[in-house]
Design brief:
9 helices; Outer membrane efflux proteins (OEP); 7-stranded antiparallel sheet; about 50% helix; alpha+beta
Length: about 550
Amino acid sequence: MVRPGPCRLLAPLLLGVLGCASSPRGPLASKPAESPSAGGPVSTSAGLSAGTAAARASCPRSPRPGASNSTPDLGTSRTIQTVSDEQLTEDEKPNSSAVPESIIPAAESVRSDDSTEAPDETTSVRPEETTPAAVYSLTLSDVIGLAEQQNPNVILARERINEAYARVDRADALWLPSLRAGLNYNHHEGAIQDVAGRVFNTTRSSFYGGMGANAVGAGSPAVPGLIAQFHLTDAIFQPRAAAHQAASRQYGAAAVRNDILRDTAVAYLELIRSERALAIAAEALDNTQKLTDLTRQYAKAGEGLQSDHERMEAELALRQDRLISAEEDVQVASARLAQLLHANPACQIVSGEPMVVPLSILLLDKTPAEFVAMGLCRRPELAEHQHLVCEAVERMKREKLAPLIPSVLLGISYGGMGGSVGSSIRNTDDRLDADAVAYWEIRNLGYGERAARDEASSLVRQAQWRQVALLDRIAREVSEAHSQASQRERRVERARAAIQAAEKSYALNLQRIENVQGLPIEVLQAIQALATSRQTYLNAVIDYNIAQFQLCRAIGWFEGA
């Protein structure tokens, strides 16, 4: 059975973050920690159904990320908000006794031996001149809130909504006229032809100024002062297509947000995995060091074999190498999480969890088919693609009706004009020109029309097939995540039982070797079994927690629950 333990903490914040709901939050005391804290439990709630009707994600038209409290946030200029301990009831605070701490050794007990060594006298940098990188301890709720506010992909997706609505506004204003004002001067010398066809020589000049420009002779100004020129099909169908595009951008932003929150949660859990793996490697190194010292003493006293001691020296070197590799994994996991948080990569992020426990985010009391149905109802990608299909249909309608609906040109110009023979400007007076034109067009003798219709029809079919492929992908993702969560839940209890047996085996074998009754290889195997069982349990818990977040994202998080 999965123990909820301290898993009541995260539900209010997850519901607020994932549903854009406002809740009273206190500022996060994100001060640099003295040392990396132990990687531990991921807190959430077992009762996620209460109050989730208000948690439906919605993308505002002009979202602006940010927060009201100004506190340090991993080297960026943004702010952090979360739920403070004072705002939690006694039942919501973490239960430190949910899982025995001995199952996974505490990460805070890991200390590098290199940190206590004296600096090399040949180096030119003094110890007091070195500045250690800032260390920030964050919980799962902290990193989810930061990703919601600061991740560039989330902000970019929201900004694309603003772009789409700007296109809607532009399409709605397509039929409105434009205003133009200007002036022109024209001078002619030499031969010219009149309307009767006679060619004669003359010298003339004219000047025009007002609404419009380029008014020469008897014709209307080439640049009308008030002009409306558009195809009526564009004025009809472009606003519809732009509206569907804007709606698809909204749902697309919700999908991007869900993906980023899932990726952030997974990255945080991987950070916990690496921290606890480091603690396991340190414990195995300590146990191996003890056994190496015993075999050295026995070999010197003639009570043991030198070959046993050499075998332990080799094992000790391997354990030291694994510890270095584990330290590397912690730094890599921190850097990857910092990227998702848009944080300073020079800052070291450590998990603010005291222990590792299985989460209880979702109740796996439904069949895979029921979870698939939930995903097909909630996933924002489906609504996004539905609007993309509608957009393609509107554009196809435009192409089909384009030859039947005219283009329109409306122009009005008003200004002052003067001119005369020669270079002088006389006989000035006001001038008003009004033009109304409607014309029909068949592009490229009809071949262009057919090609445009075929292209638009193909785009509709492509959008429909992309939607069908998305349905298959969502069904696969939900089924896969449900299977992983169900099977990994079973692994947790089995792995916990293996730890208990490995601890007993190590204690008994160590007692035997200390009493000169057993063989060093027996203790070595017990050390290896203990480290393997601890790592297996850690992997089972982290993999199970990741599977639950994958399932949450696959069914659309908590929308509509």
